[in-house]
Specification:
The chain has 312 residues and is an alpha+beta fold. It has 15 helices and eleven strands. The mean pLDDT is 89.
């Protein structure tokens, strides 16, 4: 029997309407895999009727998508006018998707970015070691000083600074990372920070490789020899194993997603991360930061939550 994973992927890639699974069931599965709006958008694009509750959900998510795009444009414009260098990252995808929040890397003064956005009515809802979360009415915006997990940097801001462009997100202009570099960042984020691989990661990889080409991604990986590479390689390996299993079922297409990254694999990725010279100067800071009792307790609770959760 065709697995839900295979049915969902074939619908997304080839517009093949499933014979073994109801659209409603696939939507539930897609939602767990961060593909809720993407699936409904793709179904409509394929000319398949969306009926009943799913039609109402599609309308609701379409409005939210427009709001997210508008908010991204507004924030980027406000920061540009304020003279703050920045870029959306882990947010812009080569297809419509409703995100939990907007992620913005601030390459200038994050305190200045915060003050500017506060003066435009944004409210503060949280502060982390390397980030500040603000919000408009329905959209949260994470401002990042570094691309980091807690205080461990997993991608050099110095490298990314060279690869910022003014591009189009949902029809509106924003500052963003070049797609090929955003892909590398997203891969590390998924496996190092979230410790999870979703079918959204599969579809995202498929679309990036379709648009950018595998050679460009491989060339960038080779050019980043001083950066930790194991997360990106594992991310691509999972993708290719799923892809191979679409027509010839294998263990990867029979699995239920999201797929949790095992503890040994996570440790291996973290060792690769801190072993690179680029990040050595951050390790003492991280140790001192996390060994304080309250922070260590919070870290342990966070790790337990990561091990128990089904999605993020």
């Amino acid at each position: 029997m065709t697995s839900p994973t295979t049915s969902l992927i074939k619908l997304l890639l080839y517009c093949l309407e499933p014979s073994k699974h109801r659209i409603e069931d696939l939507y539930t599965y897609a939602s767990r895999n961060k593909l809720a709006y993407t699936l409904l958008y793709r179904i409509a694009e394929c000319g398949i009727d969306i009926k009943g509750e799913l039609a109402r959900e599609y309308e609701r998510l379409s409005l939210l998508w427009e709001e997210i795009v508008g908010e991204a444009h507004r924030v980027s414009l406000v920061l540009e006018q304020g003279g703050v260098e920045h870029a959306l990252f882990k947010t812009v995808k080569p297809y419509p998707t409703v995100t939990v929040d907007l992620d913005i890397l601030v390459l200038g003064d994050i305190a200045k970015a915060y003050r500017i956005l506060r003066s435009h009515g944004y409210k503060v809802i949280g502060v982390g070691p390397e980030s500040i979360t603000i919000a408009s009415k329905n959209v949260n915006i994470d401002l990042y000083r570094e691309v980091a997990v807690s205080r461990i940097i997993y991608f050099s801001k110095k490298v990314l600074r060279k690869h910022i462009v003014k591009g189009v997100f949902g029809g509106l202009e924003v500052y963003m990372l070049k797609p090929e570099y955003d892909f590398i960042v997203t891969a590390r984020h998924a496996l190092i920070k979230e410790q999870m691989y979703t079918l959204a990661d599969f579809y995202y990889t498929y679309m990036v490789l379709k648009n950018q080409g595998l050679k460009k991604i491989i060339d960038i990986i080779r050019s980043l020899s001083d950066e930790p590479l194991k997360a990106t390689i594992l991310y691509l390996n999972i993708f290719y194993n799923i892809l191979k299993g679409i027509n010839t079922p294998n263990t990867y297409t029979e699995k239920e997603y999201p797929l949790k990254i095992s503890i040994p694999s996570t440790i291996n990725l973290l060792v690769d991360l801190i072993a690179k010279n680029t990040y050595h100067n951050r390790l003492p800071v991280q140790v001192l930061y996390t060994t304080k009792p309250k922070r260590l307790s919070k870290l342990v609770r966070g790790l337990i939550h990561h091990m128990k959760r089904r999605t993020y």
